[in-house]
Structure to design on (712 residues):
């Protein structure tokens, strides 16, 4: 094909175009939003290489993407559909086999299948700020287009194993250091593609055909990773398959890829894959704000009351999102501590490259304001209260803040348990009163639980959602009740751990059961993190509010003994169920003094302990759903995974029940009720669903448009 026919961009199909510029064949991908390697991308890319290969005078090819990122992975939406040629692994092999050398330019988040395409090119250049990774394991699968074979060839077995089994994203600098890419540069993708291709042509950028490289054998790295995952993730399916696939990288590449494909297919069939991919899409769906309420609502300034653990985190999140913050505290000492924590947080953000030093100086020079008088909140559009979990103090600050706040400004409480409707009684403008419940540590936890009081207006909800979007977190919206959704379920997990202690289960066994069930930490450890004195305060407040209806249990005794008598509050004072020394912790040997001597571990079935911990949380979620505190099944699932790390491979608390089948779940609850007590009694909704053989997703199909009532 003569060169001149391809001057200027020519579309190969809707998502791929080509052009020729001075002997360089350029291929551009444009498949918004993330250039996922859909069928159209794969076939277009194949055709583009074919066409350019036949064009006169073309010596090298350069591949780049338009939009926010190079390919961010295979198109997950195509999973489960009949395969359409070419498959991604075939395309990667075709690219690698191209007689014309191909350089690719990476930007944004080059992930999964995107990095696999890149690794099959003959040179890789990344723009500054690019992140690369093989996150398939987080979706319950493994890199299935040669990633498990090419990453070890480029970066070594040990490093590839770490990337593939954690799914972590790494910086371009780190990728360069480990040989995954060849160069980092500045510029925009097309211009960099042209320049890189020129360098490939004149030899100043060298070519590597990954399939021809040999990964240095490293049996020790493989065995170490096997031992580590057997200990830390015994229940997960795909991480172990990832190791098996990488272990095949000593084979010729096509043989290794056959083994990779076989293991990939096994993962695709696993229910864990279904759960994790379900969670991926649910998480994105709940973040969406319906069209009707998308008008800008102008939150240009935030007020935060209380600069403790939560308040300082909340203030930092707003500052990092570019919002000015006024922090108020009860006295100068409190204010000093709050500002110091925020300063430290900003320092950390500068170190991690999330904030420039100049912006930090601007923030500390006035974007962050502090005061000991709540009158300073007069200009804020949204005030978030994060003072002690104490009704009287919360009432007082609500009154003081509202006395100066603009009449249309929103007042939010970060309470972890106190019903919003009751806190709103202190407010003159209950329509503007809402719950915005953050999780600790604020910078790491992506979930925010929004709580609607009885009188909370749609406008207040829309403002809260806008704000959560601005700070790039994921909201779920729940109706008011004690403990809302997440705290209530988390407390059942911790409570079940305490009940096990009371049953005589050894503490270490309880903790292992939690982790083996897929929870990020054991229930006793979580109790320490949340703070046992806070748990005790919650129990005491609940007891006071419920009066004679409150049922005392072994949990009350254990908590009282730990907090009141032993002054063991958890991590915050260095002693709880664990003893803390710096970053190290070990189970407190004195636990039997509080709970009595444990029985031998053999008296308990670990599988049953694991189930107890998951079933209790799922059951509580079903109750909360029946009470209509939760109204969207996806929010239940997403809230459970992002809020308290409920075993992600299950897809979330309600998906866990759906996957087991409602009838089987109800049977298990009944069995546990007989054995462990009435707290396992299945609720009415579950029993009805079991009779109908219904699932949550079938019976309550999610309707995103109902999340925000029209805010007009
Ligand atoms: N396939 C299909 N759609 C995808 C996708 C993918 N791989 N990745 C993202 N999307 C969609 C999202 O669902 C969302 O759609 P929506 O707007 O309709 O809800 C949209 O792209 C934007 O995504 P985010 O809201 O997540 O945007 P962010 O900018 O916050 O994050 C991202 C971008 C870092 C790329 C993030 O989306 C992400 O982590 N994606 C998944 C990456 C991944 O897991 N890749 C591996 C896929 S599996 C694979 O490659 C198998 C292979 O080995 C064979
Ligand atoms: P904290 O004890 O670390 O901080 C509370 C801060 O409020 C202190 O700095 C205190 O000086 C300040 N304060 C007290 N009275 C005040 C007043 N009248 N005016 C201004 N400031 C005042 O407590 P933490 O952990 O930050 O909790 C705050 C709120 O957030 C509580 O309601 C808690 O239930 C909730 N929460 C806590 C979580 C956690 O994990 N710590 C998680 C989610 C919510």
């Amino acid at each position: 094909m003569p060169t001149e026919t391809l001057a200027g961009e020519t579309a190969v199909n809707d998502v791929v175009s080509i052009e020729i510029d001075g002997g360089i064949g350029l291929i551009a991908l444009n498949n918004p939003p993330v250039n996922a390697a859909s069928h159209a991308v794969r076939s277009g890319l194949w055709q583009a290489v074919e066409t350019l290969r036949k064009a006169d005078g073309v010596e090298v090819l350069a591949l780049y993407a338009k939009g926010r990122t190079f390919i961010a992975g295979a198109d997950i939406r195509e999973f489960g559909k009949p395969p359409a040629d070419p498959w991604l692994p075939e395309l990667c092999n075709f690219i690698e086999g191209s007689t014309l050398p191909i350089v690719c330019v990476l930007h944004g988040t080059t992930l999964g299948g995107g990095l696999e395409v890149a690794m099959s090119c003959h040179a890789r250049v990344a723009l500054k700020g690019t992140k690369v990774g093989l996150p398939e394991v987080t979706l319950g699968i493994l890199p299935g287009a040669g990633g498990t074979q090419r990453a070890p060839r480029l970066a070594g077995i040990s490093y590839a194993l770490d990337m593939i089994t954690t799914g972590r994203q790494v910086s371009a600098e780190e990728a360069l250091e480990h040989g995954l890419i060849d160069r980092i540069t500045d510029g925009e993708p097309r211009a960099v593609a042209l320049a890189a291709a020129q360098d490939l042509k004149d030899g100043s950028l060298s070519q590597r055909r990954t399939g021809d490289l040999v990964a240095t054998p490293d049996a020790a790295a493989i065995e170490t990773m096997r031992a580590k995952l057997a200990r830390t993730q015994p229940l997960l399916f795909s991480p172990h398959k990832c190791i098996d696939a990488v272990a095949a990288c000593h084979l010729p590449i096509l043989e290794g890829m056959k083994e990779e494909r076989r293991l990939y297919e096994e993962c695709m069939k696993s229910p864990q894959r279904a759960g994790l991919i379900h969670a991926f899409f649910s998480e994105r769906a709940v973040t969406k704000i319906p069209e009707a309420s998308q008008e800008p609502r102008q939150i240009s300034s935030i007020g935060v009351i209380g600069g403790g653990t939560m308040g300082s985190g909340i203030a930092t999140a707003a500052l990092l999102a570019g919002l000015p913050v006024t922090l108020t505290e009860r006295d100068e000492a409190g204010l000093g501590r709050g500002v110091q924590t925020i300063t430290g947080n900003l320092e950390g953000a500068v170190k991690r490259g999330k904030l420039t030093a100049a912006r930090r100086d601007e923030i500390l020079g006035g974007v962050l304001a502090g005061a000991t008088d709540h009158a300073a909140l007069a200009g804020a559009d949204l005030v978030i209260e994060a003072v002690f979990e104490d009704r009287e103090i919360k009432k007082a600050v609500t009154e003081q803040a509202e006395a100066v706040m603009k009449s249309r400004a929103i007042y939010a409480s970060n309470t972890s348990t106190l019903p919003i409707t009751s806190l709103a009684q202190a407010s003159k403008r209950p329509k503007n009163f809402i719950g915005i419940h953050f999780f600790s540590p604020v910078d790491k936890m992506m979930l925010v639980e929004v709580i609607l009081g009885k009188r909370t207006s749609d406008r207040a909800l829309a403002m809260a959602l806008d704000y959560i979007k601005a700070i790039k977190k994921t909201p779920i919206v729940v109706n008011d009740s004690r403990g809302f959704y997440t705290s209530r379920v988390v407390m059942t997990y911790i409570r079940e751990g305490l009940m096990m202690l009371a049953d005589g289960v050894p503490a270490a066994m309880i903790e292992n059961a939690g982790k083996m069930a897929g929870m990020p930490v054991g229930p006793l450890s979580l109790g320490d993190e949340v703070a046992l004195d806070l748990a005790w305060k919650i129990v005491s407040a609940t007891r006071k509010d419920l009066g004679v209806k409150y049922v005392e249990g072994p949990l009350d005794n254990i908590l009282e003994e730990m907090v009141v008598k032993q002054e063991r509050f958890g991590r915050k004072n260095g002693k709880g169920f664990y003893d803390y020394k710096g970053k190290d912790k070990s189970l407190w040997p004195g636990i039997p003094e509080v709970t009595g001597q444990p029985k031998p571990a053999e008296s308990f079935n670990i599988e049953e302990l694991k189930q107890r911990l998951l079933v209790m949380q799922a059951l509580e979620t079903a109750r909360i759903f029946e009470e209509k505190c939760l109204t969207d099944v996806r929010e239940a699932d997403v809230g459970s995974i992002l809020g308290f790390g409920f075993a992600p491979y299950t897809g979330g608390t309600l998906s866990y029940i759906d996957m087991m089948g409602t009838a089987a779940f109800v049977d298990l609850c009944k069995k546990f009720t007989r054995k462990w007590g009435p707290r396992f009694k299945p609720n009415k909704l579950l029993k009805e669903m079991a009779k109908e053989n219904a699932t949550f997703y079938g019976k309550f199909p999610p309707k995103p448009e109902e999340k925000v009532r029209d805010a007009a």
Residues 223 and 243 are 9 Å apart (CA to CA). The longest helix spans residues 606-626.
